[in-house]
Amino acid sequence: MRRIEVTIPKACALLAAPMLAVLPAAAAAQTPGPAATTAGIYTCVNDKGRKLTSDRPIAECAHKEQLLLNRDGSLRAVIPPSYTAEERAEREARERRAAELRAAQLDAVRRDRNMMARFPNEAAHQHARQAALDPVRLAIAATERRLKELGAERKPLLNEAEFYVGKPLPVKLKQQLDANDAAVEAQKAAAANQAAELERVNKLYDLELERLRKLWGGAQPGSLGPMAAPPNGAASR
To answer: For a designed S-S bond to 205, which of 11, 90, 129, 150 qualifies (C-beta 3.0 to 4.6 A apart)?
Structure first.
């Protein structure tokens, strides 16, 4: 039997080639890809205790935790609640307050440990108190001496002023008396500030001593709460 061969012209072969290339691509497009198999199931329990499921996030449970399950029922992810702007602000405020409390507690622990290391006993604390008070006491003594000096300088000026009773004082004498008055007022103001500083330092050490006695007695560092504020808002040492 004679075999018949059919020859396709070269031009026709060139036209058919693109069509043949399209066929595998079209077949591949009809095959489900990975995205089609990754859809999950959302589930939650609403406020009425009813279990809800959906192929997308459940709006009724937006304020609650939702579970995202795979098709075989295994857990894929836990979806946290969706908060409103007000709820987010409130939550952030709570977190800030909690962080501030933790920081204050850590600061109290640090301060207590530092104080106990610096003052192992009451004698060491008393020695530190006196050392802190000494500069203030020296300043008070210097102010008292200056006031006495100003009083001594004023005495001859007053004696001279007696000659001008009922008459205007000479300009120089008046200036000397005014300068003396101003210097006395300045020293009195300094004395008041020094007395306040003496009281402040003593109160600060009193607060420390009260806390140290509890720590020396067995209280754990940080267990006594934050450090009490120093008097007059002054910074602690």
So the answer is: 129
